[in-house]
C-alpha cells in the first residue's frame, strides 16, 4: 500500500468521513459513528507515519482512539470552507470570492465565507438527522440509503399542502406548486399514505427549511451563491432537486459539489 500524502477526517454526529490524498488523487471512505474503533484501526493501517488531521464534533473521541499517532484537531467551520473551495475549484475551475456555505449534516450550519474570514450566520436542528429520525418514527425504516430509495418512488401530493390548493379556483400570488404547509394536507379523514410518500415529504420539509434559511442568510450577507455540502446530499436526488429549484426561484445559485460530504475532511487534510 502506497503512503498517504495527507489524511483528513471529519468525525460528525452520525458519520465519520475520511479523505486520503495519495498519488495526486483523493480517496474517500466513511464509517458510521458506531464504528469509530474500526475507523481508528483503518487509519492506523493506511499510514503509520503521517499525521492525521481531525475536525468535527466527535474529533476528540476519535483522537482518544489514535494513541501513539500524531493527530491534530482543527476548527470545523474553517476547514469545511477550505474543503468547499477546493471541491468547487476542481469541478468548476472558478470559485466565487464570497459565498454562503450551508453544511447539511446531522443538523445544519450556515457560514458566510469572504475575504479569508468565516462568519457564522446561524443554523438549524433540521438536517440529515431529521430525515433519519422522523422517517424512522413514521415508517420504522432508519437506514439512510433505504430511505433515499423509498423517497425516489414517493409523492408528496397527499401529505403536503400546496399554494394552489389554498387558492383553489383563484390565481395564487406565487407559484402554485410551492409548499404552503408541510404535512398540512394530512387529517384524520385523509387517505392513508405510503411509506414512500411519507419519506419524500420528510425530505421535502428538510430541503425547504434549509434552503429558505440559506436564501435569507445569503441575502443578508449580500451574496448570490450558496454552496451546499454535507453527507445528507449523498445520492439524495430529491433533496438536491428541491434545493436547486427553490434557490432559482430567488435568483440564488446553488452549488452542490459531488463529494461535498467530505468538505470537512479535505479541509482538515490540507490544514
TrEMBL record:
Enzyme nomenclature, EC number: 2.7.1.33
Enzyme class, broadest EC rank: transferase
First and last residue of the signal peptide: none
Pfam family, any one: Fumble
GO MF, any single term: pantothenate kinase activity
Xref: CDD domains: ASKHA_NBD_PanK-II_bac (cd24085)
Entry keywords, A to Z: ATP-binding, Coenzyme A biosynthesis, Cytoplasm, Kinase, Nucleotide-binding, Transferase
Domain of life: Bacteria
NCBIfam families, sorted: PRK13317.1 (NF009842)
Protein name: Type II pantothenate kinase
